[in-house]
Amino acid sequence: MLTNKQKKTLRAMAQSQRAIMQVGKDGLGSNSVKTLADALEAHELVKITLLKTCPIDVNEAAAYLCAQANCELVQKIGKTLVFYRRSKKAKLEI
């Protein structure tokens, strides 16, 4: 579980990042979860966007991805979500 101070640090780091993944009309499936899990292992901090055509609500998507990819939601702004999960090599210092 992240503290508020850690989330603040991660939000600052995520501000300069570009979205690694986009979720569109196909919604969230096993491929989306696997892509997010792989990206989290590689980068630890991942930003994704939900397109206008995405059939699932932003809050539902955040809850689903957190549960399936075993990660934490750092920030939600509009249709942009930022997730964090410490990788085995612990790349980020928070």
Question: What does the secondary structure layout of this molecule look like, with pairings?
Answer:
Layout: H1 4-15, E1 21-23, H2 30-43, E2 45-50, H3 58-69, E3 72-77, E4 80-84
Which tags fit this structure?
single chain, 94 residues, alpha+beta, Translation Initiation Factor IF3, four-stranded mixed β-sheet, 40% helix, globular
What does this structure look like?
With about 90 residues, the protein is of the alpha+beta class. It has a single domain, classed as YhbY-like (Translation Initiation Factor IF3, 2-Layer Sandwich), CATH 3.30.110. The chain is built from 3 helices and 4 strands; from the N terminus they run αβαβαββ. The radius of gyration is 12 Å and the shape is globular. The chain starts with a helix and ends in a 10-residue tail after the last strand. The mean pLDDT is about 95. InterPro entries: RNA-binding_CRM (IPR001890), RNA-binding_domain (IPR051925), YhbY-like_sf (IPR035920).
In summary, what is this structure?
This protein has 94 residues and is an alpha+beta fold. Helices cover 40% and strands 21% of the residues.
CATH fold category name: Translation Initiation Factor IF3
The figure for the number of domains is 1
User: What is the CATH H-level superfamily?
Assistant: YhbY-like
Question: Largest sheet at a glance?
Answer: 4 strands, mixed
Strand pairing plus helix content: what structural class? alpha+beta
Q: Which architecture does the CATH hierarchy give at level 2?
A: 2-Layer Sandwich
**SSE pattern:** HEHEHEE
Widest sheet, order of strands: 1-2-4-3
Q: In total, how many beta strands?
A: 4
Protein name: YhbY family RNA-binding protein
Domain CRM: 1-94
Keywords: RNA-binding
Pfam families: CRS1_YhbY
